[in-house]
Amino acid sequence: EDQVTQSPEALRLQEGESSSLNCSYTVSGLRGLFWYRQDPGKGPEFLFTLYSAGEEKEKERLKATLTKKESFLHITAPKPEDSATYLCAVQAAGGGTSYGKLTFGQGTILTVHP
Amino acid sequence: DTGVSQNPRHKITKRGQNVTFRCDPISEHNRLYWYRQTLGQGPEFLTYFQNEAQLEKSRLLSDRFSAERPKGSFSTLEIQRTEQGDSAMYLCASSRTGSGANVLTFGAGSRLTVL
Q: What is the pLDDT of residues B13-31, one digit of tens each?
């Protein structure tokens, strides 16, 4: 069974204090690893897809990296508006019907104080 | 493109009642997904449609749950004889086929509270 574990469960940072969120996964063949951001009362919002170990993607203050067992979401000089829950999910390789069937972690709640 | 629309946004019901949620996906997306999210947890996959065909269902989807997507457009998720354990956020997502097929766009969700 595919599993995703995120750590820490909650992270409090001061504005400008860089840090990283971890996503450890076990999957029967990785098709893709996804990072989503979720604000309170809203649905998850897509950030990145990573497909193979060594791949990196960046968007503004966020950078996602991938190894064979885990992914990191690095946040550089965060601002209060980066406060949200960050979700990691994996998509297993397999038949065509597995598209969009994601296994999510429990999320990391990030709070950035001004 | 107005995104994925879900209605109602909030539903409070008594145990044993039936409830129905509606999802209108992005118009050019032919894949539609239902997920359930409880407090402090990530979303869990429930079911998936390609056009009007329901191609996969999670074992989380008990016999009290039924989903439809007539004509491959909007979808409904019905829960019969609701139980307190059904209280959750029900998220709908859609995606296209081909390039970008695995990128899901989520709606804001329908929050169910069963008293």
A: 999 999 999 999 999 898 9
| A100:B93 CB<8 A | yes
What H or E segment, with its residue span, contains residue B10? strand B10-13
* Confidence at A78, pLDDT banded by 50, 70, 90: very high
**For residue B101, which residues of chain A lie inside 8 Å, CB to CB?**
99-100
**What's the mean per-residue pLDDT of chain B?**
93
- Mutate one of A4, A38, A90, A102 to test the B interface: name it (highest B CB count within 10 A): A102
Instruction: Collect all residues of chain A within an 8 Å Cβ-Cβ radius of residue B3.
Output: none
- Provide the residue count of chain B: 115
Q: Is A97 left (phi over 0), alpha (psi -120 to 50) or beta?
A: alpha
Q: What is the DSSP string of A86-103?
A: EEEEEEE--SGGGTT-EE
B33/A104 touch (CB, cutoff 8 Å), yes or no: no
pLDDT score recorded for residue B61? 85
User: Could you report the per-residue pLDDT of B57-93, keeping only the tens digit for each?
Assistant: 998 888 999 999 998 899 999 999 999 999 999 999 9
- Are A100 and B33 in contact (CB < 8 Å)? yes
State both tokens at B27: 């118009």
